[in-house]
Amino acid sequence: MRAGFVALLNASDGIEVVGEAGQGEEGVRLTKATKPDVVMMDVRMPVLNGIEATRRITNDPSCAGTRVVVLTTFGLDEYVFGALRAGATGFLLKDTPPEQLLQAIRVAADGEALLSPSITRRLIEAFPQSPEAPRRAALDLTERETDVLRLVARGLSNADIARQLQIGPATVKTYVSRLLTKLDVGTRVHLVIAAYESGLAG
User: Fold this and answer.
1) Cα–Cα distance for residue pair 153/99, rounded to 1 Å
2) Is pLDDT above 80 for 102?
3) Residues 112-116: contacts with CB under 8 Å, at least 24 apart
4) How far apart are CA 171 and CA 177, in angstroms?
5) CA–CA separation, 133 vs 149, rounded Å?
6) How many CB atoms within 10 Å of residue 200?
7) What's the pLDDT band for 119 if we cut at 50, 70, 90?
């Protein structure tokens, strides 16, 4: 499967595979050595699992420019919340169509976070029952910021949010950046988590 991903990525314009690893510790080492824009991380690997490998990468200042997108066969399982809290930029299923996988990599490289639509739906359904779902205080947001956060929590892209709220995509991006700062989180995925922790969504 890894060989298939490598072949797909190397054949795509603007994407170059700079390393591949079959276990977590090697993946962390290669990430520190090559400083890629995006790491595609498996969940279940020998020696060091993908959750801990993600945490080590995202906590390393030398890898600050690297985004980690987690690939899983299992959809929303016991690892998803751990991976998101470890700093993963997003989650994709391994059966994601090739064109969507390539788009996801480009989105992550541009600094946006993502979840596959099916993962987002399951996240929405499962979050209230998750043992890793602590509640946070009500959020101090403006009415428009609240509107944007609710739509982010539904898994909508900036373009979709712009169409729904009848504002420009650049304005949506400004609101998302403001929400990241206000809620003290690092990625769009964590905005989804914050929305559910606060009871704003769900």
Assistant:
1) 24
2) yes
3) 112/158, 112/188, 113/67, 113/89, 113/187, 113/188, 113/189, 113/190, 114/69, 114/89, 114/90, 114/188, 114/189, 115/90, 115/91, 115/155, 115/189, 115/192, 116/91, 116/92
4) 10
5) 18
6) 16
7) low
Q: Do the strands 38-42 and 67-72 form a parallel or antiparallel pair, or are they unpaired?
A: parallel
Q: Which helix (H) or strand (E) holds 87?
A: none
- For residue 192, what are its two tokens? 């989804």
| 163 band by pLDDT with thresholds 50, 70 and 90 | very high
Cβ atoms of 36 and 7 closer than 8 Å: no
Can you tell me the mean pLDDT for 41-57?
89
Q: What is the pLDDT of residue 114?
A: 65
Contacts of 114 (CB under 8 A, 6+ apart): 69, 89, 90, 92, 104, 107, 108, 188, 189
The helix (H) or strand (E) run that includes residue 113 is none
Mean pLDDT of the chain: 82
Q: Which residues of the chain form beta strands (DSSP E)?
A: 38-42, 67-72, 90-93, 114-115
Average confidence (pLDDT) over 37-47? 89
